[in-house]
Amino acid sequence: MSEQDDQLREMAAHRGLKLTKSRHRKPGGDFGRYGLKDAKGAPVFGFEGDALSASVEDIKAYLRDATSSAWSQSAGSAKPRPKPKAPPAPKPKPKPRLKVKVENLLAKLPAARRTEAFTELLARPGVRIERIVSRGQATPEDEPMVQGGDEWVLVVEGAAGIRIEDSDEARLGPGDHLWIARGQKHWVTWTAKDCPTVWLAIHFT
Protein backbone atom coordinates (compact mmCIF):
# COMPACT_ATOMS: atom_id res chain seq x y z
CA MET A 1 0.00 0.00 0.00
CA SER A 2 1.32 3.47 -0.90
CA GLU A 3 2.01 6.34 1.46
CA GLN A 4 -1.09 8.02 0.09
CA ASP A 5 -3.18 4.99 0.97
CA ASP A 6 -1.75 5.04 4.50
CA GLN A 7 -2.77 8.67 4.82
CA LEU A 8 -6.31 7.96 3.64
CA ARG A 9 -6.58 4.95 5.93
CA GLU A 10 -5.49 7.06 8.90
CA MET A 11 -7.97 9.80 8.04
CA ALA A 12 -10.76 7.25 7.78
CA ALA A 13 -9.80 5.61 11.06
CA HIS A 14 -10.10 8.98 12.81
CA ARG A 15 -13.72 9.06 11.69
CA GLY A 16 -14.34 5.48 12.78
CA LEU A 17 -14.36 4.26 9.18
CA LYS A 18 -12.42 1.65 7.25
CA LEU A 19 -10.80 2.40 3.89
CA THR A 20 -11.31 -0.14 1.10
CA LYS A 21 -9.32 -0.18 -2.15
CA SER A 22 -9.97 -2.22 -5.25
CA ARG A 23 -7.12 -4.34 -6.59
CA HIS A 24 -8.98 -6.13 -9.37
CA ARG A 25 -7.35 -5.54 -12.72
CA LYS A 26 -9.90 -6.17 -15.42
CA PRO A 27 -11.26 -4.18 -18.34
CA GLY A 28 -13.87 -1.69 -17.21
CA GLY A 29 -13.23 -2.66 -13.59
CA ASP A 30 -12.72 -0.51 -10.51
CA PHE A 31 -9.00 -0.96 -10.07
CA GLY A 32 -7.48 1.85 -7.97
CA ARG A 33 -10.86 3.05 -6.72
CA TYR A 34 -11.75 3.49 -3.04
CA GLY A 35 -14.68 3.12 -0.73
CA LEU A 36 -15.45 3.62 2.95
CA LYS A 37 -17.18 1.23 5.31
CA ASP A 38 -18.31 1.68 8.88
CA ALA A 39 -17.05 -0.34 11.84
CA LYS A 40 -19.58 -3.09 11.10
CA GLY A 41 -18.47 -3.38 7.45
CA ALA A 42 -21.49 -1.66 5.93
CA PRO A 43 -20.78 0.56 2.88
CA VAL A 44 -20.78 4.27 3.70
CA PHE A 45 -19.30 6.03 0.69
CA GLY A 46 -17.79 5.17 -2.74
CA PHE A 47 -19.81 2.06 -3.56
CA GLU A 48 -21.85 1.41 -6.70
CA GLY A 49 -23.24 -2.02 -6.33
CA ASP A 50 -20.32 -4.35 -5.75
CA ALA A 51 -17.82 -1.95 -7.35
CA LEU A 52 -15.81 0.85 -5.78
CA SER A 53 -16.19 4.28 -7.34
CA ALA A 54 -14.42 6.95 -5.28
CA SER A 55 -11.12 8.55 -6.20
CA VAL A 56 -8.46 9.73 -3.77
CA GLU A 57 -9.85 13.29 -3.95
CA ASP A 58 -13.39 12.02 -3.39
CA ILE A 59 -12.32 10.21 -0.22
CA LYS A 60 -10.40 13.23 1.08
CA ALA A 61 -13.30 15.57 0.36
CA TYR A 62 -15.77 13.26 2.08
CA LEU A 63 -13.60 12.87 5.16
CA ARG A 64 -12.90 16.63 5.35
CA ASP A 65 -16.60 17.47 5.03
CA ALA A 66 -17.52 14.85 7.62
CA THR A 67 -14.89 16.17 10.04
CA SER A 68 -16.02 19.78 9.55
CA SER A 69 -19.67 18.82 10.02
CA ALA A 70 -18.93 16.87 13.17
CA TRP A 71 -16.90 19.76 14.61
CA SER A 72 -19.66 22.28 13.85
CA GLN A 73 -22.28 20.09 15.50
CA SER A 74 -20.06 19.58 18.50
CA ALA A 75 -19.31 23.28 18.79
CA GLY A 76 -22.95 24.21 18.34
CA SER A 77 -24.22 21.75 20.91
CA ALA A 78 -21.63 22.53 23.53
CA LYS A 79 -23.14 24.61 26.27
CA PRO A 80 -21.03 27.48 27.48
CA ARG A 81 -19.70 26.90 30.93
CA PRO A 82 -21.35 29.11 33.47
CA LYS A 83 -19.07 31.73 34.86
CA PRO A 84 -18.19 31.02 38.45
CA LYS A 85 -20.08 33.27 40.80
CA ALA A 86 -17.97 35.75 42.63
CA PRO A 87 -17.96 35.11 46.36
CA PRO A 88 -20.13 37.56 48.27
CA ALA A 89 -18.29 40.56 49.56
CA PRO A 90 -17.52 40.22 53.24
CA LYS A 91 -19.79 42.25 55.45
CA PRO A 92 -17.98 45.10 57.13
CA LYS A 93 -17.37 44.43 60.77
CA PRO A 94 -19.28 46.79 63.01
CA LYS A 95 -17.09 49.32 64.67
CA PRO A 96 -16.72 48.74 68.39
CA ARG A 97 -18.87 51.14 70.31
CA LEU A 98 -16.92 53.58 72.42
CA LYS A 99 -17.58 53.16 76.11
CA VAL A 100 -17.59 56.63 77.56
CA LYS A 101 -16.40 56.75 81.13
CA VAL A 102 -18.24 59.57 82.89
CA GLU A 103 -17.05 60.71 86.28
CA ASN A 104 -18.27 63.49 88.51
CA LEU A 105 -15.89 66.01 90.01
CA LEU A 106 -18.06 66.30 93.13
CA ALA A 107 -18.71 62.59 93.68
CA LYS A 108 -17.14 60.71 96.60
CA LEU A 109 -15.33 63.70 98.01
CA PRO A 110 -12.71 62.91 100.64
CA ALA A 111 -13.38 64.30 104.12
CA ALA A 112 -10.16 66.40 104.10
CA ARG A 113 -10.62 67.32 107.76
CA ARG A 114 -6.96 67.10 108.71
CA THR A 115 -5.15 67.88 105.46
CA GLU A 116 -6.11 68.90 101.97
CA ALA A 117 -6.79 65.99 99.54
CA PHE A 118 -5.17 66.10 96.10
CA THR A 119 -6.50 63.87 93.26
CA GLU A 120 -4.82 63.85 89.84
CA LEU A 121 -7.49 63.75 87.13
CA LEU A 122 -5.38 63.95 83.98
CA ALA A 123 -1.72 64.17 83.08
CA ARG A 124 -0.33 64.86 79.62
CA PRO A 125 2.96 66.27 78.40
CA GLY A 126 2.99 69.90 79.48
CA VAL A 127 -0.23 69.84 81.51
CA ARG A 128 -1.60 68.26 84.67
CA ILE A 129 -5.15 68.61 86.05
CA GLU A 130 -6.01 67.90 89.66
CA ARG A 131 -8.87 68.24 92.10
CA ILE A 132 -8.13 69.71 95.52
CA VAL A 133 -10.52 69.38 98.45
CA SER A 134 -10.02 71.69 101.45
CA ARG A 135 -11.90 71.99 104.72
CA GLY A 136 -10.69 74.72 107.00
CA GLN A 137 -7.03 74.56 105.90
CA ALA A 138 -4.84 77.59 105.24
CA THR A 139 -1.25 78.22 104.15
CA PRO A 140 1.16 79.20 106.97
CA GLU A 141 2.37 82.76 106.53
CA ASP A 142 5.99 81.69 106.69
CA GLU A 143 5.56 78.84 104.19
CA PRO A 144 4.17 80.41 100.98
CA MET A 145 3.47 78.17 98.00
CA VAL A 146 5.83 78.67 95.04
CA GLN A 147 5.39 76.56 91.87
CA GLY A 148 7.71 75.81 88.97
CA GLY A 149 4.94 76.24 86.41
CA ASP A 150 1.92 78.43 85.71
CA GLU A 151 -1.39 77.46 87.34
CA TRP A 152 -5.03 78.21 86.57
CA VAL A 153 -7.33 77.52 89.53
CA LEU A 154 -11.13 77.44 89.81
CA VAL A 155 -13.33 77.14 92.89
CA VAL A 156 -16.10 74.68 92.03
CA GLU A 157 -17.79 74.50 95.40
CA GLY A 158 -17.31 76.16 98.78
CA ALA A 159 -15.38 79.33 99.54
CA ALA A 160 -11.79 80.40 100.15
CA GLY A 161 -9.45 83.38 100.40
CA ILE A 162 -6.20 83.64 98.47
CA ARG A 163 -3.37 86.17 98.39
CA ILE A 164 -0.62 86.50 95.83
CA GLU A 165 2.57 88.40 96.75
CA ASP A 166 2.22 92.17 96.48
CA SER A 167 -1.60 91.83 96.35
CA ASP A 168 -4.52 92.04 98.74
CA GLU A 169 -6.54 88.97 99.71
CA ALA A 170 -9.14 87.87 97.11
CA ARG A 171 -12.30 86.08 98.18
CA LEU A 172 -13.34 83.16 95.90
CA GLY A 173 -16.72 81.43 95.60
CA PRO A 174 -18.17 78.85 93.19
CA GLY A 175 -17.20 79.73 89.63
CA ASP A 176 -14.42 82.16 90.56
CA HIS A 177 -11.03 81.46 89.03
CA LEU A 178 -7.62 83.11 88.74
CA TRP A 179 -4.14 82.73 87.22
CA ILE A 180 -1.00 82.21 89.26
CA ALA A 181 2.22 82.80 87.36
CA ARG A 182 5.29 80.59 87.66
CA GLY A 183 7.43 81.44 90.71
CA GLN A 184 4.85 83.72 92.39
CA LYS A 185 4.50 83.31 96.11
CA HIS A 186 0.88 82.79 97.15
CA TRP A 187 -1.14 81.79 100.17
CA VAL A 188 -4.57 80.22 100.74
CA THR A 189 -5.55 82.48 103.66
CA TRP A 190 -8.65 80.49 104.66
CA THR A 191 -11.16 77.87 103.45
CA ALA A 192 -14.71 77.17 104.59
CA LYS A 193 -14.95 74.97 107.68
CA ASP A 194 -18.63 74.00 107.47
CA CYS A 195 -18.43 72.47 103.97
CA PRO A 196 -15.74 71.18 101.60
CA THR A 197 -14.13 73.63 99.21
CA VAL A 198 -13.46 71.94 95.87
CA TRP A 199 -10.78 73.37 93.58
CA LEU A 200 -9.98 72.49 89.98
CA ALA A 201 -6.33 73.28 89.29
CA ILE A 202 -4.61 73.10 85.90
CA HIS A 203 -0.80 73.15 86.05
CA PHE A 204 1.30 74.05 83.01
CA THR A 205 4.88 72.85 82.94
How does the SSE layout of this entry go?
Layout: H1 3-14, E1 18-21, E2 34-37, E3 43-45, E4 47-48, E5 51-52, H2 56-77, E6 117-124, E7 127-134, E8 150-157, E9 160-164, E10 170-172, E11 177-180, E12 186-191, E13 197-204
Antiparallel strand pairs: 1-2, 2-3, 4-5, 6-7, 7-13, 8-11, 8-13, 9-10, 9-12
Helix pairs in contact: 1-2
Description:
It contains two helices and 13 strands. With 205 residues, the chain is α+β, with helices and mostly antiparallel strands. The chain folds into two domains: 3-75, no CATH class; 117-204, Jelly Rolls (Sandwich), CATH 2.60.120.10. A five-stranded antiparallel beta sheet has the order 6-7-13-8-11, with no helix packed on it. Strands 1-2-3 form a three-stranded antiparallel beta sheet. The protein has a three-stranded antiparallel beta sheet with strand order 10-9-12, with no helix packed on it. A hairpin with a 5-residue loop joins β2 (34-37) and β3. α1 (3-14) runs parallel beside α2 (56-77). The radius of gyration is 56 Å and the shape is rod-shaped. The two termini are 110 Å apart. 17% of the residues are buried. The model has no long low-confidence stretch (mean pLDDT 86).
